[in-house]
Amino acid sequence: MVSLHRQKILEKEGNQFPAKTYKDLVLEPAYNQAKFNAIRPMLQIHFAHLIMLVEEGIVKKEEAVKIVKSLNKIDIKEVGERFYNGSYEDLFFEVEDFLIQDAGELAGNLHIARSRNDMGIAIYRMNIRERLLYLIEAALHLRQSLIELTEEHIDTVMIGYTHTQQAQPTTLGHYFNAMTDMLTRDIERLQAAFVTVNKSSMGAAALTTSGFSINRGTVQELLGFEGIIDNAWDAVSGADYIGETATAVQLAAIDLGRSTQDLLLWGTQEFGAFKLFSPYVQISSIMPQKQNPVSIEHTRAMLSSVKGDVETVLSMMHNTPFGDIVDTEDDMQPYMWNALEKLTNIYYLLSGVLMTMKVNKKKLLKRAKESFANVTELADTLVRSNNLSFRKAHEIVSASVQDLVENDKESLRYFTLDHLNKHAQQIIGHKLNMRSEELADALDPEHFIKIRSLEGGPSKERMQKTVEVRYEQQRTISAWLAGKRKVLEAASKKIDSKLKSLMPDDE
């Protein structure tokens, strides 16, 4: 006897494939993703595989012509407007059934030496590689902005911070250059991920290749892949290509998130380092004075969202069997696509924010001139001019600063030679060999920056050389990007050319 509860489940779910809940939760969302993201690469794979089958003498030319005609009837835009009705398990079988209905049973030969397994992985890789190139292009856009900002603020004196406390004078250009270099490493990791991703699984079939004598290299070349995944088991089972991409994207989001934290702090009235351009701020509904830096807030929030998306990817990979399995397929791939697309847009948004903000150079310089952040150079000067050990010089300067702080005189205005000598007398037993002019130089943030001209330092001379190198790197990465796109464009044109030669002259 069937229980009432079981009867209700059967009535709701139905007795034919697919069950309603399975359709709603799994198949329909996967279909909707595929109709926008899989149809184009799927057709490219169909064409490339068919061309190879003809060239290897496995499919007759006249049969291939009929299949090509049917493939050409598939309208990508129309596919995007379809709704999932459960008639087919997925878009692959829907397309295959159309080809058989249109071209006859011979269209079934398109599936010789091929599986949804190797096709699916190839489609995923083609999707990710395209999004990676868009992301790298966006990263280059932001990087260009950062280099220009480095040049613009090469003389913008500010205090640098360590442990969230005032540390030493530097320039805003020095900070932007640091952002540039961190972004460069992010780009290099994305480039490395692209190299891993852009390899062909086609020809692996289900797991063990095929008994048909196909040419995997032909399909690889026609699809713009720059290598073949040699082991067929690995080709359909390995997920580290998306794991590497996820890791690179996650680190890029985390890296940029650290700078957004700085920007939000520096944009406060208390800090007053800059003011955002009005298109990037929002007002309060109740407080008339408010100018909320929401563009940066949203940037930070979306970067966290990117991290969450790729964390989902890595979590779904974790503890899965090393084989073809759905955990790493349709349910997981959209999280990677979303992360790539979001980070792409974030790069463009932040570039706009930074390039249009107005920096308060006078306030930053004034703060630096009054700050004890300059006294590292004073300790260095005592070592050079008084033949003291650095530790002893550090002790004298530290005691002088601490004395002023304890007496509520937290400004270099109160840092006089007499004050310094008082502590020198207590620590080394005599006054220092120093004139007031030397002390003034040692406590000047602009002097501090000028003499730090070693590699990596903030001096104008050093930063100008650095900027030249960064522009050259920009050209190198841009050339790499153009080269990868050229490979993909050439592959697409090669498919078109071979299809044209395949078709009769009157077609």
TrEMBL record:
InterPro entries: Arg_succ_lyase_C, Argininosuccinate_lyase, Fumarase/histidase_N, Fumarate_lyase_fam, Fumarate_lyase_N, L-Aspartase-like. Residues 105-308 form the Fumarate lyase N-terminal domain. Its EC number is 4.3.2.1. The keyword Lyase applies. GO terms for cellular component: cytosol. It is an enzyme of class 4 (lyase). Pathway: Amino-acid biosynthesis; L-arginine biosynthesis; L-arginine from L-ornithine and carbamoyl phosphate: step 3/3. Residues 372-449 form the Argininosuccinate lyase C-terminal domain. It is found in: Cytoplasm. Gene3D superfamilies: Fumarase/aspartase (C-terminal domain) (1.10.40.30), Fumarase/aspartase (Central domain) (1.20.200.10), Fumarase/aspartase (N-terminal domain) (1.10.275.10). Keywords: Amino-acid biosynthesis, Arginine biosynthesis, Cytoplasm, Lyase. Its main location: cytoplasm. GO terms for molecular function: argininosuccinate lyase activity. It comes from the Bacteria. GO terms for biological process: L-arginine biosynthetic process via ornithine. It catalyses: 2-(N(omega)-L-arginino)succinate = fumarate + L-arginine. Transmembrane segments: none annotated. SUPFAM superfamilies: L-aspartase-like. Belongs to the lyase 1 family. Argininosuccinate lyase subfamily. This is Argininosuccinate lyase. It comes from Oceanobacillus indicireducens.
